[in-house]
Amino acid sequence: MSELEILKSFIFDDEVQKIFSDINDNLMDFNILEITGMGTQEIKHSNILGWLLEDSEHGLEYRILENFLKKVIEENRVDASDENINNLNKLREYIYLSKEKKEITIYREKDDIDLLIVDETNKVVITIENKVYAKERKKQVETDEDIVKEKDDGGQLQKYENTITNKYNNKYAKYFIYLTIDLEKPSKDGWLRANHQMVTDVIEDILSTKHDIAIKSKIILESYVDILKRRGIVEDIELKKLCKKIWADDKYKNALDILMRHKTSRVKIFYDEVLRNELSFFDDKDFDDNVWIKSEGTSKLFDIEKVPFLACQYFNDSIEIYFSYEELCKSNKAYNSEICTNIIGDRGRTKKYKVRKEYTITDFQKKGDEDRILKEIKETIKEIDNKLMNILQNEKSGK
């Protein structure tokens, strides 16, 4: 049987089509949080998480918070010291046997802490450091004229612990939770491990057992779980099962091998067939799917051998529009610093790389996405180009 016939047999298989349909239905067509650009932004994740944990419009009181804390307790009991076991027992007593009715206030980004949960009536303070993709800062980093210096200040967890200790006296019971994707171990003893899967499990359990949730609250709960799955922050178990049905079946092996050899994506097709035709690149600077964008400002910089540049890159099935520079011309250090500061906008400090726009496969879900993304990319290029031209004109006039 030819490869074409193998693929036709695969595509026309009713069982395969049913699985594909189930996979397609597994993610929401419309995710209200996705359109806010929440995806990988930790501040927005913390804002939504704070809304979930408090007694807010969702009408669930503190059910999400309490069930999340129960999972944190169970996770950390396994290898806890006697002191930590004692703290976990006190936290459990707080969940089940609060002396007073819980009156909780949740602060977001207060004193740089992602989530600060304060129950004044029961004198309980819970600190949550929420890491989505970023790593724990264990040392203070300072930059002086592009020289990076590290200072051992105990790290951010120690800083937050000191802040809470100073603000809340010994009458308060204090708990510290380090929330990560993969249950990463915190550098500080006394911090409790947690992951976003715990939050997902709590929400999915509530959605499956409680049927009187307000529609708008249900949409947000479902959207939050959906975005965690589609961004790979938590494992999509149901999706994994569906995919395994195809990959584990020997009768589809030859068809899957053919598809893998010709693998591509909407992102790669858009990059190759749309961006390269619509944008004018420096032809002699094309290397490894990383190309310089030719515009009025970048052309002038290139002609006068100034080194900052604007580029478009395809990498790991994503497209980046970024501004970067290499300090090749020592005599133009101040000039490079000015351009970098103006384009990157880093409050006077220079960096050598700044992504202005990033698009992944999740941005290419609906009809018309390619046109929208192309328009956004062109607007980004125009914005940066205008800044470059203003800098060049000011330099020419001696301003």
Quick tags:
3 domains; alpha+beta; 47% helix; globular; 399 residues; five-stranded mixed sheet; four-stranded antiparallel sheet; single chain
How are the secondary structure elements laid out?
Elements: H1 3-11, H2 14-26, H3 42-53, H4 63-77, H5 82-96, E1 104-110, E2 113-119, E3 124-130, E4 140-144, E5 147-151, H6 155-167, E6 173-180, E7 191-195, H7 196-209, H8 215-230, H9 237-247, H10 253-261, H11 266-278, E8 290-292, H12 296-303, E9 309-315, E10 318-324, H13 333-344, E11 353-359, H14 369-396
Parallel strand pairs: 3-6, 6-7
Antiparallel strand pairs: 1-2, 2-3, 4-5, 8-9, 9-10, 10-11
Helix pairs in contact: 1-10, 2-9, 4-5, 4-7, 7-8, 13-14
